[in-house]
Each structure stands twice: as structure tokens, then as C-alpha cells.
Design brief:
With 373 residues, this protein is of the alpha/beta class. It has 15 helices and 4 strands. The chain has a 4-stranded mixed β-sheet with strand order 2-1-3-4, with helices on both faces. The longest helix is centred in the middle third of the chain and has 30 residues. Belongs to the ABC-2 integral membrane protein family. It is found in: Cell membrane. InterPro entries: ABC-2_transporter_component (IPR051449), ABC2_TM (IPR013525), ABC2_TM_bact-type (IPR047817).
């Protein structure tokens, strides 16, 4: 125990002595947590729309103002030439064109129907799909308003209808930050701990102090624990500041689940993650090699963890990779505990899997570290 305490004292001194490393560990993740959730918003807004009005009637202008006032569209053109609007699409100045035909208002009143032409730039498939859905809903609402305004009361009598009232659970205001902040916090803790830990033993190799340590009677497990524990505490600290300071006071996110369960899972997750970092560090000979390997795995973990794309939407081979990542399970658990208030029975299999990760990765790192005297 005394030997381990000396090793921990040495590691903490090395960490806090490096003035360039401290801001990267403690300040950078907090700044990123402040900025990233504001940018990582999947709700598509400010879709550029060019309005081609051949009718120039009161009703066509009402439709235009209804579309613009929805908050999803931004008018970049209002004219009577489809060719000019198409040039805006080709110049990437417009995403969508609505063409109002001649006699739009007259035909709508006299004949009870009128066609509109909508052209959507589909280079960005997601934006095109959402833009088309938004404009379709707005036109449908506009059509209902006209029906109530122009049709006779007798014609509005319809058979009984089923009304649907929606109730949103866990995130009633549909605030996207509520969904993204816990996941981004997990990613930031993962990046800091994995990178720093993966460079740890390699730095000893490059400086030459690893030879001096190997010549001492320090056991392998003591050396591994000495490298793991400091970053374990750092990971706990970063997560706590992000959850209780930035998430609460900046984004208004208050965990509704058990903090004991959350921190228990975090503690085991950090052991698994740091085991992976130590494993990389024992295999690499230079810090550049360690950073390259760590970057490779972190990018896979980040892109295939369910942070940006739902795992259920992935192909089977991608799901297999996603479920081989410890980050996937921690993001899932964090969202479940922070937003839904899930219990132990809901996340029991997540615990089992992350414990397996922790045992396998740390045992592998212990075996790969070869101590020679």
C-alpha cells in the first residue's frame, strides 16, 4: 500500500507540474460542453425558400407570410420567374421553390381546389425531407383555414372524428439540449481520459524513466494502479463539474434518477476506459503512435455510439460494432438516469457488460506490460 501511495504521489506531481496539460484536462472539456450542445442541434431551421407568385393575390401573399412566420423558412426571393428561382437553387442560395399558378385564389374559391408546385433541392437528403414535410404541413394548415373561412357552415358539418392529444415524456418542451448534453459530457470525459492515459506509459518510455521503474521491486499491478487511479479521479471530477455546474446552471438539466447508480456506473466505466488507454500505452513505443491509435478508437466510439445516429437505424454490421463500444452503454445509461429516472433493473445488463469490459481490458493491459529488471 505504501508503494502504491508513493506511485500516486509521483503521478499527481507529474500531472500538475505540466502547466500546458492542465488547461487541456480541466478547462477545455468545460468550454466544449458549453459550446457543442448549442451547435449539435438536429432541428432543421432557416431553410431558404424562393417564392414564385404568378397570381399576386391576397391569398398567395397570405400563404407566403404564413410560411415565413413559421420560423423554419427564410425568404430569399419573391418574384414571378421560375427560371430566376431555379438559378438560386443552382447557386445554392435557395433550398426550396414554391410556385403559385395564375388564378390561384379564383380557382380555390370557385372550384374548391388548386395545385401548387414545390421543388426541393435534395442534395442534402435530411434537409430536403424535413423541408418538404414542414412545407406540406404548413400548406395543409393553410388549406384548413381557408375551408373554415370560405365554405358554408352546412358544408363544414362532418362525421365525428378521433382527436389525438400528444404528451411528451421526459423532455416535454422538446429541448434538444436535454438529449445532447448528457451524451456530449460522456464523450468529453472519454476523450480526455483515454488520450491522457494512453500517453502515460509511453511518456515514461520516451523519457527513459521506465527503465528506472522496472529496476525497482514495484509489482506490475502496483504500477498499473498508479497509472490508472489519478486519471480515474480526474474523470470523476470533470464529469461532476459538467453535470452539476454546466448542465444544471447553463442548460437547466437536473438529474431525476439515482446519482448513486450513475456514479457507480461511471466508476466502472472509467476503469474500463482507462484500461483501454493503458493497453494502448503498453503496446505503443512513441506518443505519436499512442495518439494515433487512441484517435482511431475514439472516432469510432464517437460516431457509432448513438450520439449522432440512433443505433436502431444502423445496419446490422454497424450495430455489432456499436455494441462492442463501452461508450454506447454509458451514453445510454446517462440519458436513462438523468432524463428518465430509470432504476437498477432497467440498466442491469449495462452494468454486466461494462464490468466485462473493465475486467478484460485491464487484465489485458496487465499482461501486456512486461516488467524487466
Amino acid at each position: 500500500m505504501r508503494t502504491l501511495l508513493f506511485l500516486l504521489k509521483k503521478e499527481f506531481k507529474q500531472i500538475f507540474r505540466n502547466k500546458a496539460l492542465l488547461p487541456l484536462i480541466f478547462i477545455a472539456p468545460l468550454i466544449q460542453l458549453l459550446i457543442l450542445p448549442l451547435a449539435a442541434d438536429y432541428e432543421v431551421k432557416n431553410i431558404n425558400i424562393s417564392f414564385v407568385d404568378h397570381d399576386h393575390s391576397t391569398m398567395s401573399q397570405q400563404l407566403y407570410h404564413k410560411i415565413i412566420s413559421s420560423g423554419y423558412f427564410r425568404g430569399v426571393g419573391y418574384g414571378s420567374s421560375y427560371k430566376d428561382a431555379l438559378k438560386q437553387i443552382e447557386a445554392d442560395q435557395a433550398d426550396l421553390i414554391i410556385e403559385i399558378p395564375i388564378g390561384f385564389e379564383r380557382n380555390l374559391i370557385r372550384e374548391n381546389k388548386q395545385d401548387l408546385f414545390v421543388a426541393i433541392n435534395a442534395i442534402n437528403g435530411v434537409k430536403a425531407g424535413l423541408g418538404g414535410s414542414y412545407i406540406g404541413q404548413i400548406i395543409t394548415d393553410f388549406n384548413q383555414e381557408i375551408r373554415f373561412k370560405w365554405l358554408k357552415s352546412a358544408e363544414l358539418i362532418t362525421p365525428g372524428q378521433i382527436e389525438i392529444d400528444s404528451s411528451f415524456w421526459y423532455n416535454p418542451n422538446l429541448n434538444y439540449n436535454m438529449f445532447m448534453v448528457p451524451a456530449i459530457l460522456v464523450i468529453l470525459v472519454t476523450m480526455i481520459c483515454a488520450y491522457m492515459c494512453s500517453l502515460n506509459i509511453v511518456k515514461e518510455k520516451e523519457v527513459g524513466t521506465i527503465e528506472q521503474i522496472n529496476a525497482t521491486p514495484i509489482k506490475k499491478y502496483q504500477f498499473i494502479l498508479g497509472k490508472l487511479i489519478p486519471f480515474w479521479f480526474i474523470g470523476l471530477f470533470i464529469f461532476s463539474v459538467g453535470l452539476f455546474v454546466i448542465a444544471r446552471f447553463v442548460y437547466g438539466i437536473v438529474p431525476i434518477g439515482s446519482l448513486l447508480l450513475l456514479y457507480l456506473f461511471l466508476a466502472i466505466y472509467l476503469i474500463a476506459l482507462l484500461g483501454m488507454g493503458l493497453l494502448i500505452s503498453t503496446m505503443a513505443n512513441t506518443q505519436q503512435q499512442a495518439m494515433s491509435v487512441a484517435f482511431f478508437f475514439i472516432m469510432i466510439f464517437m460516431l457509432m455510439s448513438g450520439l449522432f445516429t440512433p443505433i436502431d437505424s444502423m445496419p446490422d454490421w454497424a450495430k455489432l460494432i456499436a455494441y462492442c463500444s463501452p461508450v454506447t452503454y454509458f451514453i445510454d445509461v446517462t440519458r436513462m438516469l438523468v432524463l428518465k429516472g430509470s432504476g437498477m433493473m432497467d440498466i442491469r445488463w449495462h452494468f454486466v457488460i461494462i464490468i466485462i469490459f473493465a475486467i478484460v481490458l485491464n487484465a489485458w493491459a496487465l499482461i501486456k506490460y512486461k516488467k524487466t529488471s
